[in-house]
Predict the structure.
Amino acid sequence: MSKSNLLVAFEEYLSVTKALDTLTISSYLSDLQQLENHSNKILTKLNTTDILAFLATFENKRTLNRKLSSINVFFNFCHVQSFSHEKIKIPMAKVPKNLPKYVNNEEILDGINLIDRSTLMGLRDYALILFLYASGCRISEALNVQRADIVEGWLKIRFAKGEKERVVPLAPVATQALERYLLEQTMSSPYLWLNYRGEPLSRISAYKIVKKYLGVSPHVLRHSFASSLIIGGADLRVVQELLGHSSLETTQIYTHIQKQNLADTMNQFHPLR
């Protein structure tokens, strides 16, 4: 099988079998192209030494692991499909687990209370920030939400990572802010979040809105959503379902926040502090 046909088959495998989104698939193929260009060999002719030489060009361990993930998935695919006799799998580099950055409920409320809600754009900004914090959506998911996706306080996320659907409840305060915004927003569009021209809001614009009032990126609101639940005592598997994580391991980073919160409480209130 030629290289081009092999990559076409791999791309189909990622899309159909693994159900990955188009951006992730593009990233995988780009990583493999970099590997091939670096080694000057056809991918199926590479050995472990060739791959390690390529990986050695990356100092950042997170970047290295991202490249390695693409490579391991590709060679596992080749081995299972009998395109390659050698089973190549290189272990990931150990990366220190940093606590995800988040803002607490009070900080979020203080920030959005600065928004002028006498204007349509102010109502939108207020509702958007509450929506992100209440739902735990990725910003790409939030910007793809349509009016029909919210029914009786429940949000259907149709464009989730990996193209998987999930349904999450919205807090009443976020639902009320959204209803107030939509009551004033008379532009004809199925999408919730629009700019002043009635076009779907861009990622850059959404970033600027959240940054303006809270000083953080929209993704930090996703971390804040999960952190608030964990600190409040929510079950980790429930948080996993709400976030749309395919693996519980991804969600477990938030247990560090729970432990830190317990330690802070002990240090504040225990008589032997």
User: Anything to note?
Assistant: The chain has two domains: 3-80, 105-266. Residues 61-80 form the longest helix (20 residues). The CA atoms of residues 197 and 263 lie 49 Å apart. The longest strand covers residues 154-157.
